[in-house]
Each structure stands twice: as C-alpha cells, then as structure tokens.
Write a structure and sequence with these properties.
Strands 1, 2, 3, 4 and 5 form a 5-stranded antiparallel beta sheet that branches. The chain has helices at residues 15-23, 61-114, 118-123, 127-130, 135-149; strands at residues 152-157, 163-165, 168-177, 184-192, 200-204. The chain is built from 5 helices and 5 strands, in the order H-H-H-H-H-E-E-E-E-E. The protein is of the alpha+beta class. The chain is rod-shaped and about 150 Å long. It has a domain at 88-214: Roll (Nuclear Transport Factor 2, Chain: A), CATH 3.10.450.100.
C-alpha cells in the first residue's frame, strides 16, 4: 500500500493537530488571527533620549611628556629639601648632644672638687694636663687651696660664656669658696675625644684651681 507524501497525514490529521483540537473541546483546530487588511503597521520610536557614549580623548604626546617632566621636577625638588632638612636635623641633634656631653664633664669636675673627691676630678682631665701633672700633684694642689680659701661651696655657669671652636668647648663658672670673701671666675675648656665622640675631657682650667692673684696668698 502506497503511503501519502509527508508521512501519510493531512495537515488536519497530524497528531499535534489532533491534540490541540481535543484540548479546546470543539474537535477543530483554532484559526490563527490575521491582521485586518489595510491596517498599517505602527512603529513608535522610543521617547527616552539615548545618551551618547563618551569618547575618550587621546592625550597629545607633547602634553603628556611635559606633564611627566613637571612631576619629575617636583619630586626632585622635594627630595632635595628632604635631604637638606635631614642633614640640618642631624647636625642640630649632634650639636645638642655634644654640648650636653661637654657641659656634663665640666659640671662633674667641679662637683668632684666641692665634695673633696679629687680622684674623680682627676679622671675628668685630659692628656693635655695629665701628661705633665700626676694625680698626687693634682690632689696636693686642690687640698692646699681648700685649706687656704676653704672648700668650693658653690659654682654657677656664667650665662652666655659658652664658646665652641672645632671640637673644643669652653665654659666660665663663678666659684664661691668657704673662706674667700669674694667669688672668682674659673674658665674650663673641654675637648671631645677623637676616638670616642661621647667622651669629653678637660684640657685647661687656667693652671690654678684657686682665685689666683686676685686673692691674698696662702700662708
């Protein structure tokens, strides 16, 4: 038996068509609505305005290079100022530290004299003095002045007397002794050790721990 073209089914006899017809209860396949003749197709444009996509403007090569040069120049200037500031702060802190060390040595020397600690006072002296004066000689000199003019009762740094020259610093002190009617001035020069920058030694105290010629000679 020869079948029909297309599988042997008419368009209305296809299984899918039968299922649609049975589902609507009429037994007939529903017709597809058609556009009425003469009706124009309406295509309404959107009422929302379209925003144009921003276009990236390419930087000009000349301007870009100038900008880089300006930034590099600013950074270089900042680096120079940072270096100068760091160096200045370094010198400032070193100067403060050096002044503190020298003043401490001078004060320790006078404190040792006032407390009769002559050995400690001698340890504050540098080679410029100790090479020509032994500790016993220094002790005898200090004791002789204490017996003659009295012990050192007070010492005060004269304001504005501090001076600095290379690695030497000098200070002037007003000295008060127990048996002396008036005060006298002692000038101390302190030198920084060339091998240990934290060490300071007295290199000169005027050659005399007493008032010198300004007071009557001891008897």
């Amino acid at each position: 038996m020869q079948g029909r073209p297309g599988g042997g089914y008419e368009p209305g006899d296809r299984p899918s068509a039968r299922r649609i017809a049975s589902s609507n209860g009429t037994g007939k396949q529903p017709a597809i609505p058609q556009r009425p003749p003469g009706m124009a197709r309406v295509n309404r444009p959107s009422t929302i305005p379209r925003v144009a996509r921003p276009q990236r403007k390419a930087a000009e090569p000349g301007k870009s290079r100038r900008g880089l040069l300006i930034v590099a120049g600013v950074l270089a200037i900042v680096a120079v100022f940072v270096c100068i500031g760091s160096y200045a702060l370094y010198n400032l802190f070193n100067g403060i530290s050096a002044s503190a060390g020298a003043a401490t040595t001078a004060g320790s020397f006078l404190t040792a004299l006032s407390s009769h600690n002559y050995d400690q006072a001698y340890q504050s002296l540098g080679p410029a003095i100790t090479l020509s004066m032994q500790k016993d000689q220094f002790t005898q000199q200090a004791q002789s002045l204490d017996r003659c003019y009295g012990v050192v009762k007070n010492y005060t740094e004269i304001q504005g007397s501090a001076t600095t020259q290379n690695n030497n610093q000098s200070y002037s002190y007003t000295i008060t002794r127990e048996k002396l009617a008036h005060t006298y001035v002692m000038r101390l020069t302190v030198q920084q050790d060339q091998y240990d920058p934290n060490t300071w030694k007295i290199t000169d105290y005027g050659g005399n721990l007493g008032p010198g010629s300004s007071a009557p000679a001891c008897k």
